[in-house]
């Protein structure tokens, strides 16, 4: 496996040709009356071509605005990636945004997500963050991953993320 920082020149749709973004979700966390509960909510989360193009554009923007995108390759094929934005935010300007972290379906459970998360956290800390902010998919499995990485509910919610993804769990990881 080879993990490297990606450049804007490498960022295109073809980069994701061997990346499988598919998650079969059965149960999700939902905040009801101020309490987190697990609810049955079965669906399949799979990216469309349009969503891949939006992703490519977002990752290009991350690189252009001095954030970072790391890609993990197995046999030269992208199997995981993570990105961190460069702009500190929050009342005390202590958060950096983990804007994406994804592992191809065929590589989940391999430890790749943990490696990518640690790399993102190290980059954020070296760029002045005290906390990494994550607007995270509410699937039980996804939340278990973040909890295992030391994430907890964010003290301060980012309104932009809440508006864009109202069902996401807003998390932070102290660096």
TrEMBL record:
PROSITE patterns according to UniProt: GNAT
Organism name: Anaerosporobacter mobilis DSM 15930
Query: According to the lineage, what is the superkingdom?
Result: Bacteria
Keywords from the UniProt entry: Transferase
Question: Which Pfam families does the protein's record reference?
Answer: Acetyltransf_1
Determine if Transferase is one of this entry's keywords. yes
Give a yes or no for keyword Transferase in this entry: yes
State any single GO MF term: acyltransferase activity, transferring groups other than amino-acyl groups
Record domain N-acetyltransferase: where = 6-168
> What is the protein name for this chain?
Acetyltransferase (GNAT) family protein
């Amino acid at each position: 496996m080879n993990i490297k920082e990606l450049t804007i020149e490498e960022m295109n749709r073809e980069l994701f040709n061997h990346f499988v973004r598919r998650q079969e979700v059965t149960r999700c966390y939902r905040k009801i009356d101020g309490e987190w509960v697990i609810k049955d909510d079965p669906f399949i989360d799979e990216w469309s071509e349009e969503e891949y193009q939006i992703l490519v554009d977002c990752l290009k923007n991350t690189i252009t605005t001095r954030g970072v995108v790391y890609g993990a390759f197995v046999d030269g094929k992208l199997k995981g990636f993570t990105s961190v934005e460069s702009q500190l935010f929050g009342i005390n300007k202590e958060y950096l945004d983990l804007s994406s972290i994804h592992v191809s379906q065929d590589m989940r459970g391999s430890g790749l997500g943990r490696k990518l998360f640690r790399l993102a956290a190290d980059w954020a800390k070296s760029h002045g963050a005290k906390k990494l902010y994550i607007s995270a998919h509410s699937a039980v499995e996804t939340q278990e991953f973040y909890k295992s990485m030391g994430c907890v509910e964010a003290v301060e919610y980012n309104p932009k993320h809440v508006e864009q993804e109202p069902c996401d769990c807003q998390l932070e990881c102290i660096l």
